[in-house]
Amino acid sequence: MRIIDNVVSGGGTSSSGRSAEVFDPNTGQVQAKVNFGDQSTLEQAVAAAQAAQPGWAATNPQRRARVMFKFKQLIEDNMEELARLLSSEHGKVIDDAKGDVQRGLEVIEFACGIPQALKGEYTQGAGPGIDVYSMRQPIGIGAGITPFNFPAMIPMWMFGMAIACGNAFIIKPSERDPSVPVRLAELFLEAGAPEGILQVVHGDKEMVDAILDHPAIGAISFVGSSDIANYVYARGTQNGKRMQCMGGAKNHGIIMPDADLDVAVNDLIGAAYGSAGERCMALPVVVPVGEDTAERLRDKLVSAVGSLRVGVSTDPDAQYGPVVTAQHKARVEEWIQKGVDEGAELVIDGRGFKLQGHEEGYFIGPSLFDHVKTDMDTYHNEIFGPVLQMVRANDFEEALKLASDHQYGNGVAIFTRNGHAAREFAARVNVGMVGINVPIPVPVSYHSFGGWKRSGFGDQNQYGMEGMRFWTKVKTVTQRWPDGGGDGSNAFVIPTMG
Ligand code: NAD
After folding, report:
1. Which of 148, 177, 200, 206 has most ligand 1 atoms within 8 Å of its beta carbon, as the pocket-test mutant?
2. Is the CB of 91 under 6 A from ligand 1?
3. Which residue has the CA at smallest separation from atom 18 of ligand 1?
4. Is 109 exposed, middle or buried (0-12, 13-18, 19+ CB in 10 A)?
5. In the structure, what pLDDT confidence band is assigned to residue 285 with cuts at 50, 70 and 90?
6. Lower CB count within 10 Å: N or C terminus of the chain?
């Protein structure tokens, strides 16, 4: 049995004896065991981070960037291996797994430019003989708690920026697919990072709580489901930490009557069913505007969904693979039943799908619902599976209101040929990331990623300049070098520029 261990400078073994099984979702077989750390593992990691971080922060940013350049090269060299490993634990198809690695790598590319991003501000002559300048300094030790669905990209969103800014970083990956974060940490060390700068501790709620309560950890980034994001945010901020917590999603795709339906349907099925719907930027809700649009869309969707190929994650012709665990498969199928019970029309039922030769794999066929209503639980909640729900809207205002009023506000997309409608929609919708004829509007690495409402707790986005700000503190210096003569000002009155 393959054992996945903590990556902690000096060993990181744990006496907890707790572990979890890691499955191959294609077969339903256990393929590895991940050893959970405990409080002592975390203490060891924190001590190593404390020892390494001051030297790393004092290393000039150009040298830190060189480690990022080398790391980028190593990821490229190991892309195939990383993608296969990722796919074998997560279940997403190989090309999609490469995309997962690549989107994280793009944040590393941004982090290669950290000397430029970290430059402070300077005002010469802010007062008589007075200059003011600001500098960005690292927090010290940062931590990341990540979900199962992007085991390469999301860890790199976090540690790429945090470490380039001069922090040490401890990551607690999802216990369901922990191998890729471990491999990334090994490659990071190989790239020349000092021991203790990037470490991995495994576990579940127990380890998360230990991280949230550790006084030496100054900032924590979390990505996962909303209830846990909310809990993590509350406990971390209560402990005085800087927190950034991204939660779940229920992204809407608005189809205007003038949209190019063939393009929109192609985009929609990729965004709804790709990665078996296990993406926080998936489009699980489609909102056709007007009855005529709805009928035309439904016909095209039924035919497109009917020709989708579900297969093992190594099948180059498969469009999506299994979901991550047996429990998750059961939960998604319960949601489908709930949709039926609530009165939505199940146009295509993906339950009971069996892949020949892989009967124990966690496969779910694509499901399509029509006539989903806003008071249904299945509309209100995230299903996170290959299920597309159609909610019909009468007009633009109703479609805009649907996306704006939903409890989640991660992403949204509008499909139209009308620039005015698109512009109006982007300006008014109450959602953090908007696509205009772009189904999955995950911003490029030099912008930043973040949802609104219950999709994001905290006030700084992931990566880009927002990420740099999250992982650093501003220090502002006001300096004067008197010539000895004095300026005659009254030191008892607060200085002003009046
Ligand atoms: P999850 O919330 O179950 O787990 C996320 C992390 O929290 C894991 O590391 C897990 O070990 C830990 N955790 C689990 N239970 C905990 C508890 N009770 N207390 C403290 N920590 C706990 O999420 P998941 O199933 O791994 O990932 C899927 C979810 O993540 C979906 O809701 C998806 O929308 C969301 N997600 C959001 C974004 C985003 O940027 N908004 C990106 C990716 C995924």
Report:
1. 148
2. no
3. 205
4. middle
5. very high
6. C
- What pLDDT digit, counting tens, does each position of 219-266 carry? 999 999 999 999 999 999 999 999 999 999 999 999 999 999 999 999
Beta carbons within 8 Å of 283's beta carbon, 6+ residues apart: 251, 252, 253, 268, 271, 272, 388, 411, 413, 439, 440
The H or E element spanning position 134 is strand 130-138
**Percent of the chain scored above 90 by pLDDT?**
94
With residue 405 as reference, give the H or E element that holds it.
helix 396-405
Q: Do 44 and 216 touch, CB atoms closer than 8 A?
A: no
As a whole number of Å, the end-to-end CA separation of the chain is: 73
Q: β-pairing, 285-288 with 242-246? A: unpaired
Please give the Cα distance from 63 to 86 (Å, whole number).
30
Confidence category of residue 486, pLDDT binned at 50, 70, 90:
low
Q: Which two tokens stand for residue 168?
A: 């040490």
Q: What are phi and psi of 358, to 5 degrees?
A: -135, 45
User: Is residue 487 pLDDT above 80, yes or no?
Assistant: no
- Decide: 192 and 97 in contact? Cβ < 8 Å: no
- Cα–Cα distance for residue pair 158/169, rounded to 1 Å: 9
| 280 touches ligand 1 (CB under 6 Å) | yes
Adjacent-strand bridge partners of 474: 136
Q: Which domains does the chain have, with CATH numbers?
A: 2-247+455-478 (3.40.605.10), 252-436 (3.40.309.10)
CA distance 325 to 385: 12
ipTM for this prediction: 0.99
Give the pair of three-digit tokens for residue 296. 């035309």
Contact 360, 28 (CB under 8 A): yes
Radius of gyration (Cα) for the chain, nearest Å?
25
Residue 175 Cβ contacting ligand 1 at under 6 Å: yes
Q: Whose CA is nearest to atom 42 of ligand 1?
A: 280
112 is catalytic: no
Dist. CA 281 → ligand 1 center (Å): 14
Residue 22 neighbours by CB distance under 10 Å: 22
Nearest atom (ligand 1) to Cα of 246: 41
Q: Separation of 224 CA from ligand 1 center, angstroms? A: 2
108 and 160 in contact (C-beta within 8 Å)? yes
Q: How far is the CA of 213 from the centre of ligand 1 (A)?
A: 19
Cβ(204) – ligand 1 distance below 6 Å: yes
Atom from ligand 1 closest to the CA of residue 174? 9
Q: Whose alpha carbon is nearest atom 24 of ligand 1?
A: 147
CA distance 371 to 226: 26
Give the helix/strand (H/E) hosting 131: strand 130-138
Pairing of strands 168-172, 198-200: parallel
Query: Residue 54 is encoded by which pair of tokens?
Result: 């001051």
* Ligand 1 geometric centre to CA of 226 (Å): 8
